[in-house]
Amino acid sequence: MKKKRTIGEWARSRDGQKFFVITAFMIVPLVLLFTFTYLPFGEMVGYSFFNMKYVGARKFVGWKNYIKVFQRDDCFKALKLSLYYMAGSVVQLLLSLYLATILSFKVKMGGLFKGLMFFPFLINGIAIGFIFKFFYTRGFVFDTVLQWCGFRLDSLPYWLRDQKINNWSLVGTSVWRYFGQNMVLFIGAIMSVDNELYEAAMLDGANRFQQFLYIILPGIKTIIVLNVILSITGSLSAFEPPYVITDGANGTGTYFVIMHEIAHTQQKVGLASAMAVVLLIIIMIATLLQKLFFKYVFRSAEDEDKRASLKRERRLARYGSEKGGNTL
Questions:
Q1: What is the pLDDT of residues 13-24, one digit of tens each?
Q2: CA–CA distance, 41 with 25 (Å, rounded to integer)
């Protein structure tokens, strides 16, 4: 009969030490996550029910801050600017997917191109803001390049003042910075697709576009969904380009910039906290809708593939039966 171990013997044994190591590796990250993420978030939700500043007395106001978020014009006018960044994210994803598809195969100096296009993502967002602030300034880099191309300076708009174009200028900054990150994610996903599928497709006479449509896209659908979710949520929370380049002036103040001004300039901490909670709810709803949409799209594609394969099997079976009948 096996002798039952005491708690001390079990703790000194290999099984006990393994248990303690695993528990320690689980507890430490969870404690850090709770301390620096969930606890501050809970405090922020609590602040959203008070009329308060950073220093001084607090007054409980209930849901009034949330009502003000929906009543203030500047909040939702700022939220509408996210549509510009969403449009830019579509261009960003299409561009990164196109370049990733090309660079995933053998291309001369492909490694150099990958590094050059990924490099903007490594630069600090504040530094990028200052770079493009001078890039778009009247008579500076962008205007000089356009004058080399034959444009007159008087005919060019003020890229950061003209409200018809200034938000698109800021969107271009975000596209330039983030498309390299998406491209690298797409490249990693495309390179994981089995090469035998390409060989079989070429034997069947499929061209590059058909290979992309029927092999690459279904094979990287998880990364596509991930990149779309990251791009849309990033569009809703755009902050660095409008804050650093224009300081939110001339109609470029996004939701985050307005929230920053309300919290730190106007010292309305409770209202800013309510704005943050509302934005979180909007992002969660947008993420859920995207997941449902892509689940429906990919399910429809899979159903079409199944129907097509069944048709092929039926044709082969009919052809085999007819051939067998002719030989008899």
A1: 877 788 888 888
A2: 24
